[in-house]
Every structure is written in C-alpha cells, then in structure tokens.
Automatic annotation (TrEMBL):
GO terms for cellular component: extracellular region. The keyword RNA-binding does not apply. It catalyses: Endotype eliminative cleavage of L-alpha-rhamnopyranosyl-(1->4)-alpha-D-galactopyranosyluronic acid bonds of rhamnogalacturonan I domains in ramified hairy regions of pectin leaving L-rhamnopyranose at the reducing end and 4-deoxy-4,5-unsaturated D-galactopyranosyluronic acid at the non-reducing end. This is rhamnogalacturonan endolyase. GO terms for molecular function: carbohydrate binding; rhamnogalacturonan endolyase activity. Keywords: Lyase, Secreted, Signal. It is an enzyme of class 4 (lyase). Belongs to the polysaccharide lyase 4 family. CDD domains: RGL4_C (cd10317), RGL4_M (cd10316), RGL4_N (cd10320). It is found in: Secreted. GO terms for biological process: carbohydrate metabolic process. The keyword Ion transport does not apply. Signal peptide: none annotated.
Length: 684
C-alpha cells in the first residue's frame, strides 16, 4: 500500500509538471483553439506572438480580442458580433448598454416564398483563424445552414470575416454568401452591416459636404410624436431645444449608390473628438446599379453599410432563389475607420481626414490582402473599354453625337435596363468622358451584358453581344452606337430626361414639419417631410392643368402625381391635364407619346386623349411600382418608359387635351413621379 501511494505521488507530480510546462510554453491556451489549429494545420512553429504588431487573444471562452496597437476590437465567439471597439483611450465606443448582439452585426431580411419577412442577425456557429501574420490577422465566423433550421434561418451559408492590419486606424469586414446544391427556395430583401455607437458621445452626423449636422437622440425620438409612418417622428420634447419642432426620418439622409462611399459620426463635444466612419471603396457588390438610393447613417447613433436592399425599388429587386439554386458572392470588404482630433475646435476636420482616407481606399481597390479565394484579386480581374455615340435622326440631321457623361456598366445578362432590377450578381459602372470614351476596370471574370443610359436621352442601351471577361483580359469594344427611342419629330416636351423628378416644382415644406438642415438648400428641398400633402393645398378644388407653351415645368408641374386627401383618412384619384395646340392639319399615321416615369408606387396611370371618360382608357400602365419614393423623400425610384402609339384620329386641329389619371387611391403615398413626357408627330 505504501509503494502504491508513492506511485500515485510520482504520477501527480508528473501531471503538475506537465501542466506547468504547458502554461510556460503555451500561455495557458488549449491545443484545440482555432489559433493553435491554424498553426498546426499550416505546419508553423508557434510564433513569438508578443512581437506581432497585430495581436489576437482568444483565451476567453466566449470572446476574441484583436489589437493592432491603434484599435482593439472585441468579438463574440463563435457568433461574430462586434461587442466592443476600444480607441483613443475610450474602452468601448459602441453602446455598451445594448445587448452584445445589438452593437455591431450583420443582418439579413428574408422570407420563404409567399410568407412574411423575417429579420435575422447572422449568428456564427464556427470560429476560425484564416491567417495570422506579423502585420495582419483575418478571422472567420461561419454560419452553415442545416435542414433543422428550415423556416427559422435564411438558407444560405454565411461567412462573416474581419481583417486587422498593422497601422490601420480601423478594420475591414466582408461577408461570403454561399448556396450549395439542395437548399430551399428563399427571397432576400436586405443585407447590411450595422454599428450602434455611444449615444452620449456621438452627436454630429456627416454624410456629404452639404449633409452634416448635430443630431437629436434616440430618446428624443421616443418622446416625440408619431407621423404618417414609423420612421418619421416630430420632435416635441427633445433634450436640446434647438431640435424642437423638427422632423427626424432616416430616409431624409438616403443617397445614391454612386455617392454612398463615406458617412459616419463625430463626437464634437468631447475634449478629444473622434470620428467613426463607414468607407465603401467600391459599389461592385451592391444591387440595383449606380443610381439606386439607400440608407446611410441616422439617429441612434447608427451607421450602416447597405450591401443590398429593396429600398426605393420594392420587391421587383429582391434576390429570389429557386429551390436547389446555387450561388456565391462576396459582399465587401468595407473599411470601418476611426480618427481623432486634439481639440474641440478641430472636430470637423475629421470629415476631411475621412475623405482623405476614402481616397486611399478607393486607390487600393481591389484589395490584395483578403484571404478568401472567393474575393478576386487585382491581377485576376479584367477591363472593358470603348466609345459610346448617340444617333437620333431628328437631332443634328442624324449625325453622331458624343454620349457625354453616360452611365456605362456591366451586369448579369438580361434585357436592356434589367440592371436596375438586378441584385444577385456583381455590377461594374463608370461614366463616359465628354466624347463618349469609357473604361470599366477591375471586373470580376464572368459573362455580362454591357448596358448604358445617357442623360438627356430616353431609354436604355444594351450591347447586342454578351461579354466574357477573363482574368487579366482587356476587351476593346471600339465604337458603340445608341439610337434612343424615337418615332417622329418632337411636337412638345415636358421635363428633362434624366430619370429624376428633381426639375419639377417641389413645394416648400410645412413650417411645423421641417428638417432645418435643408432649409437653405433648394436642391435638397425634396428631402423635407410631408410634401405630398402640399398638393391639395396648391390644388384644393381642381387637379393640375398644364398648358404647353404657357406653363413652365419647373414652376407649374408638381413633382409627384399623388392622390387627393378628401378627409377622414380617405383619398381619391387625381387626373392631370396636358393642353396643347395642334396648329396644323392632323398628320396621317400614329403619333407617339413617350412617357418616362422616375418612380411608381402601387399606381395605375391611365391616359386618355380628348375624351376624359372613355373606358377602357386609350392606354394604361396597369398596376405598377413599389419603390415608395414619395414617402421616403426620393426624387426617383425605378425607371419606366412607355412608348404609346396614338392614332391620328385621337387628335384634332386646334386645342387638344391629354388626361393623365392616377386611378389607385387608398393612401397618400400612391402615385408616380414623371421623368419626361414627349409627343412625337408621325414620321414624315
């Protein structure tokens, strides 16, 4: 028994010695941590991690800390939520009173076919170290879909990645969406990254040079008065009296994809001001093309990176997957940038510094440091160049014109103009120069169509052959010619063909429902709340009548063809009239009414010629649109073009009237916005 006791003592001493040596040489971490597995799988000897510029610590059971010497980011493990960002002496600039899953996260809005939408934060189930180098760390939080998740989790494998580099005052984030074979059908309406900052610290929001201001708080919103929809609040009892009587609405700060590159917040009242910025160096992974509008930053304080959404477009632009359909796409990376100033007086210089950082990120795109094989590196991408010309036989004698400042882009194959309703693939856009030359660079290899639209001309251009972009390939398309829709010479026109209603009359807002930021910015007046209600103020009894040659569209054509408020929360259809004189005898053949719409929301536009009561109407769009731009302070949504043949017997010599009736009228937000209207006489 004594000998057995001695043996037990020796075994115990050996165990203690082994544990001690493990603590000495391995810092107490488990051999099964993702970091250790990464080192073993890459046949690496354990590096002197304390000498690395970027340090990764995953010793906590549920938290991972990455520190590059400038910022320190705490991530939940294995979920991948950003639960803390330490910077410039502040322990956590995120809102620490929120639950850990409600500070920094990736979310998706999705639905099974025919069922209601589901909002879901993406909750990783597997953490792994993708790479750990002296100057760079990339980590992954993967959520793999399983059949047991059917109906509760979006059926897509989602890998959320974070990249930390030496000397970066910030970090990168991107997401890989992957649908292998066998997954159920699904519709995806929104993919975004969200950050919720300290409310007591960040109080100044900046989106563009002319879109910056001190902001109210979320508490101010909660104490305010609800308006026509949940996003719009009248501030009745704000903590800062300067906001009393203003409207706060996140959609007042939406901008187009092409401009949505930089936005964020500044702590202007701090003795050491800091800025928090979302930098998006490329739009290639966003949906709907360069002119689609989307959210930026708003009261919270909240900063978003919108990867895709149905905002200002509706369900027509949703990502719809059939059962078993495969798919893979990389969203991002985007750069979360932090900066600081030494004094309050320099706080607004943080915006200029962030603009400089944006310029650096754009010049570095596409990045060469993400480790995912699905992110296509710079030397693996292609280029397409060419020249776009315009030929309209009724302008300049049919001679070629330069497609000046045209939007030219590549998107998945489809019909002309289909790019604005496309959400699955990558899109690559540029603007042509004054002589129509264009170059599209950094294209992910694949098969595309080339599309274009040209300001001052109606319609959409599509190159008649699919384009195969190869790794490192350069394709010169030489001279392309776009012949915009045209059947005859112009008799008259209303508006400017620019896919926007901005040139039409935008009324002054109600004095009690204003956002003061836009009071002295006439071009931004459309962002004010409640403008749709001004129609009945301007036309209390009769609807709009526009006489060609007498009225001016910038003064006399209301920006939106809306319903009429007839009281008791009921609304009626409205019929606008276009009156024109046909001075000469009527031509034989068909006239053409080119009707371009900049937006439509649950509308039906009926067109009648010289007979307001004929039924059915001479033309109807049918029920169209879901972009909700009227309510969301947009000057456009999706673009619609209708070329309407009008038999000559519908017109008479002398006075003629075209009746435009928006017949659907259940709420104040139904209607259309016009882009441009043109009447063409028969071809002579």
């Amino acid at each position: 028994m004594k000998e057995m006791g001695n043996i037990k003592k020796r075994v115990l001493m050996l165990c203690l010695f082994g544990i001690t040596m493990q603590l000495v040489f391995h810092g107490g971490t488990s051999q099964n941590t993702p970091l250790r597995r990464y080192l073993r799988e890459n046949n690496s000897k354990e590096p002197p991690l304390h000498n690395y510029a970027v340090k990764l610590n995953n010793e906590s059971n549920h938290k991972l800390v990455v520190d590059n010497g400038i910022i320190s980011v705490t991530l939940s493990n294995p979920e991948g939520y950003v639960i803390g960002i330490s910077y410039n002496g502040i322990d956590n600039i995120l809102e620490a009173i929120n639950e850990e899953q409600d500070r920094g996260y990736l979310d998706v809005v999705w639905n099974e076919l025919g069922k209601p939408s589901i909002f879901q934060r993406i909750h990783g189930t597997k953490f792994s170290v993708i790479t750990i180098e002296e100057n760079l760390v990339e980590v992954s939080f993967l959520r793999t879909w399983e059949s047991s998740m059917n109906g509760t989790n979006v059926p897509i494998n989602i890998d959320t990645r974070y990249i930390f580099r030496e000397n970066d005052s910030g970090f990168y984030s991107y997401a890989i969406f992957d649908r292998p074979k066998g997954l159920p059908a699904v519709e995806v309406d929104q993919i975004r990254i969200v950050f919720k900052l300290q409310e007591s610290r960040f109080n100044y929001m900046a989106i563009e040079d002319n879109m910056q201001r001190r902001m109210p708080t979320m508490r101010d919103r909660k104490k305010g008065q609800d308006l026509a929809y949940p996003e719009a609040i009248l501030l009745t009892n704000p903590s800062d009296p300067q906001f009393r009587g203003e409207v706060d609405d996140k959609y007042q700060y939406s901008i187009e994809n092409k401009d949505n590159k930089l936005h964020g917040w500044i702590s202007v009242d701090s003795d050491s001001p800091m800025g928090f910025w979302m930098i998006t160096p490329s739009n290639e992974f966003r949906n709907g093309g360069p002119n689609k509008q989307d959210l930026t930053s708003h009261v919270g304080p909240i900063t978003l990176s919108m990867f895709m959404s149905t905002h200002y477009a509706g369900k027509e632009i949703t990502m719809s997957f059939e059962e078993g359909e495969t798919y893979k796409k990389v969203f991002g990376p985007v750069f979360i940038y932090l900066n600081s100033a030494t004094t309050k007086d320099n706080s607004l210089s943080l915006w200029s510094d962030a603009e400089d950082q944006l310029s650096k990120e754009v010049k570095s795109w596409p990045y060469d440091f993400p480790k995912s094989q699905d992110f296509v590196k710079p030397n693996e991408r292609g280029k397409v160049l060419g020249r776009l010309l315009i030929q309209d036989r009724y302008i300049n004698g049919g001679r070629f014109q330069y497609a000046n400042n045209a939007y030219v882009g590549l998107a998945l194959p489809g019909d002309a103009g289909s790019w604005q309703r496309e959400s699955k693939g990558y899109q690559f856009w540029t603007r042509s120069d004054s002589k129509g030359y264009f170059t599209i660079e950094n294209i992910v290899p694949g098969v595309y169509n080339l599309y274009a639209w040209v300001p001052s001309f109606i319609g959409d251009y599509k190159y008649n052959t699919s384009i195969l972009v190869t790794q490192g390939g350069v394709m010169n398309l030489d001279k392309l010619v776009y012949s915009p829709p045209r059947n005859g010479p112009t008799l008259w026109e209303i508006g400017i063909p620019d896919r926007s209603a901005a040139e039409f009359y935008v009324p002054d807002p109600y004095p009690t429902l204003m956002n003061k930021l836009y009071n002295d910015q006439p071009k931004e007046k459309f962002r004010q709340y409640g403008l749709w209600e001004r129609y009945v103020d301007l036309y209390p009894n009769d609807d709009l009548v526009y006489t060609v040659g007498v009225n001016k569209f910038n003064k006399d054509w209301f920006f939106a063809h809306v319903t009429r408020n007839i009281g008791n929360k009921t609304y009626g259809p409205t019929t606008w009239q276009i009156i024109f004189e046909h001075e000469h005898d009527i031509f034989s053949g068909n006239y053409t009414l080119q009707l371009a719409l900049a937006s439509a929301k649950d509308a039906e536009l009926q067109v009648r010629f010289n007979d307001p009561s004929i039924n059915p109407p001479h033309f109807t769009t049918g029920q169209i649109g879901g972009d909700n731009s009227i309510a969301r302070h947009g000057m456009h949504g999706l673009y619609w073009l209708f070329s309407i043949d009008v038999p000559s017997d519908h017109f008479v010599k002398g006075k003629n009237t075209i009746y435009m009736r928006q017949s659907r009228a259940i709420n104040p937000f139904q209607g259309v916005m016009y882009d441009y209207i043109r009447l063409e006489s028969p071809c002579t």
